[in-house]
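BUG: 3D viewer hangs when loading the predicted structure for this chain

Environment: internal workstation, default settings.
Expected: structure renders.
Actual: progress bar stalls at 90%.

Input used:
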Amino acid sequence: MSEYIEIGLRWIFGFQMLFWGLNGFFHWVPIPPSPKVIDDFVAACMQTRFILPTVKIIEIVFGAFLLFNFIVPVSLLVFAPIMFVVSGLHLFHNPKWAAVLIPLSLPYLVLLVVHSGSLLRLVH
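Structure tokens produced before the viewer hung:
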């Protein structure tokens, strides 16, 4: 049973990363309005013409890796800094933080716990 939960959470998180990564290039779904400080941060990342495209490519590639069950522990490690920034921005600057953090961070955190043994072997 726990194997199915891991697969479901991996697909949920991987699909979200793949979808929002592709949306960064194709703009299928408009990004919901955020507080000004978050919008300013995203605008600054877009103006560099490096940071946001790099993050979106990482989301696409490693989101697909999660969907195909390929190097899952490495993918989770690669997402750590992205999740840190997204979580921090919304936790500290978005009064409606739960709408972003629960569907995005919860599957990620559970996957970190499920794969903690593999992750510890990677860093030792």
